[in-house]
Write a structure and sequence with these properties.
Order of helices and strands: HHEEHHEHEEHEEHHHHHH
Strand content: 5-15%
Helix content: 40-55%
Distance between the termini: 27 Å
Radius of gyration: 19 Å
Strand order of the largest sheet: 2-1-3
Structural class: alpha+beta
Number of strands: 7
Oligomer: single chain
Number of helices: 12
Shape: globular
Length: 259
């Protein structure tokens, strides 16, 4: 459904990476959102948290993702920034000799984005700041320089890889929703905020995909996650004309049940 991008082996940190290798340092969402004092505090607490630091000398952990056991490799210290993986690395679930973790229920494309975030602070499509318009936009294939130069990307949020097929749900779901729910399980609060912000920039999504993603998000997050629920309510209201034309919302209301 989506075009596969070829990534040079030297630029990849896994065998199946959904992200995009970038050699130039650009202004990212994380750079903009973290204050100077917080950044200095983070550096003091984690002096080796950058890819060039000593964390890249920690042991390599192999992660088997999905029923097909697609293999990913990551440094133990990088993984341990997630409380979920920190507990695994300390516990009996990690095979002591081979440093191997099996996660058969995870989706490879989603895990690849999470791993990219752990190493780079963002995942494809990246969140780029348009200085001329003073707005945040999602990059699309070949649009990075347009956004950075103030000309904007696609302008309507239609970017590659916005949805992912979920084999268990047997339907297409918003990629950012899947990443948000995965970040919830992994204890990555900053990734949750990033995924929610990116999803808010999406448009042109089919009504059935929005509703299916909302159901999945509601079922895989705490009931008191008001921020997520408010986001989906705003997304549905913003797309009300599309729902009205398609008749999807009326059909869902007739069926009833929990969203």
């Amino acid at each position: 459904m989506f075009a596969r991008r070829n990534i040079p082996a030297s630029d990849s940190f896994s065998k199946h990476r959904a992200g995009k290798a970038v050699t130039k340092s650009k202004r990212s969402f994380r750079d903009h959102s973290v204050s100077r004092s917080r950044l200095e505090k983070t550096k003091q607490q984690q002096p080796a948290a950058s890819p060039s630091g000593s964390t890249l000398t920690s042991p390599i952990v192999t992660i088997c993702i999905g029923p097909e056991q697609r293999l990913f490799a990551a440094h133990e210290d990088i993984l341990s920034t997630s409380p979920f993986f920190a507990a695994i690395c300390r516990g009996q679930f990690l095979e002591s000799v081979s440093k191997r973790v099996n996660l058969p229920e995870e989706i490879p494309e989603v895990f690849s984005s999470v791993l990219e975030y752990l190493y780079k602070g963002d995942y494809y499509p990246r969140l780029l700041h348009n200085k001329r318009r003073n707005t945040w936009e999602l990059e699309s294939a070949g649009s990075e320089m347009d956004v950075l130069n103030g000309r904007g990307g696609s302008g309507n949020g239609e970017v590659a890889e916005s949805i992912i097929y979920h084999p268990i749900m047997d339907t297409a779901l918003l990629k950012d929703t899947l990443i948000y729910c995965t970040a919830e399980r992994y204890g990555l609060e900053e990734l949750k905020r990033l995924a929610l912000r990116k999803q808010g920039l999406q448009s042109g999504i089919q009504c059935s995909t929005i509703l299916a993603s909302a159901r999945y998000a509601y079922a895989n997050t705490p009931d008191n996650d008001s921020r997520l629920r408010a986001h989906y309510l705003a997304l549905i209201i913003r797309s009300r004309s599309t729902f009205k034309r398609s008749g999807t919302m009326q059909m869902e209301m007739e069926v009833g049940g929990r969203l």
